[in-house]
Write a structure and sequence with these properties.
Layout: E1 2-3, H1 7-16, E2 20-24, H2 30-36, E3 40-45, H3 53-66, E4 70-73, H4 77-85, H5 94-105
Parallel strand pairs: 1-2, 2-3, 3-4
Helix pairs in contact: 1-2, 4-5
């Protein structure tokens, strides 16, 4: 896994055979998705820029619509739990749900 923040870095990582990239939401664009090629991309939703469950849901959908494979965040437990249990989260994708479950379980929450 490698954190990248430019299309050139994403393209170089893809050429080098890096399988997983981490890219934060403010710089996650269709150009970054194209540069990342076949890499699995986890998109970070930045703490402090999103507040409510609805904010996180909109940001997660935007990231997935661009082509993200998963999202991760530091949302409060209730927001993560709502994302996981809502019918709307089913349209994001299974890898997102697995990553959220892992994130929550790392803090001792029931997954």
């Amino acid at each position: 896994m490698l954190f990248v923040d430019t299309p050139d870095e994403a393209a170089a990582a893809a050429i080098a055979g890096i399988d997983i990239l981490s890219i934060i939401d403010p710089i996650w664009t269709p150009e970054m998705r194209e540069a990342a090629g076949q890499c699995f991309v986890q998109v970070g939703l930045l703490y402090g820029e999103l507040c409510t469950y609805e904010d996180y849901l909109r940001a997660a959908h935007r990231a997935m619509k661009i082509g993200g494979d998963a999202v991760y965040c530091a949302a409060i437990y209730s927001a993560c739990g709502a994302l996981l249990s809502s019918n709307a989260s089913n349209s994001i994708n299974r890898s997102t749900r697995k990553l959220c479950l892992y994130y929550m379980s790392s803090y001792g929450a029931a997954a």
